[in-house]
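User: Good morning. I'm curious how protoporphyrin IX containing FE would be positioned relative to this chain. Could you predict the structure with it bound?
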Amino acid sequence: MSDNDDVTVYDAVGGMPFFERLAELFYVGVKGDPVLRPMYPDDDMEGAQRRLALFLAQFWGGPTTYMEERGHPMLRARHMPFPIGEAERDRWLVCIAAAVEELTEPGEIRELLMGYFVPAADAMRNEGFQQTRPS
Ligand code: HEM
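Assistant: Good morning! Here's the predicted structure, ligand included:
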């Protein structure tokens, strides 16, 4: 435990502008990605970008605007309409990692962010699992 336990990641990165920029850079990647691009709403990329920024700001200790606008995140359920296998997960991680690397230096904040994104993106998979038991 450090002396900074009361400082949220949200505060440490400078608040909402960081998450807005992170989501913006992430969607630059999505728009150029042949796997991801078709999955996202053509007519509401700005809305999708805003929802990601607000969710991440809330997740890391910022204002609860996401919850007020969208309700409980239930992210796995919200991703069910989109077929997410290993390829989609990996492309998503490439885009978010590029954004994180552009906005942070190597160090604790980058590790905290990626330490969340890697398992969370994996948890969003909803297809393409190996059969673990004989059917
Ligand atoms: C850490 C992992 C992830 C987080 C935090 C995350 C976050 C979000 C959020 C907050 C939304 C908007 C939900 C809403 O309010 O309606 C969303 C939508 C979406 N996500 Fe993810 N996501 C993750 C992983 C993935 C992965 C791996 C994919 C694979 C392609 C994916 C594809 C999508 C798509 C297609 C949408 C719909 C766009 C929209 O209308 O907002 N997400 N995600």
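Residues 84 and 126 are 5 Å apart (CA to CA). The mean pLDDT is 94.
Let me know if you'd like a different ligand tried.
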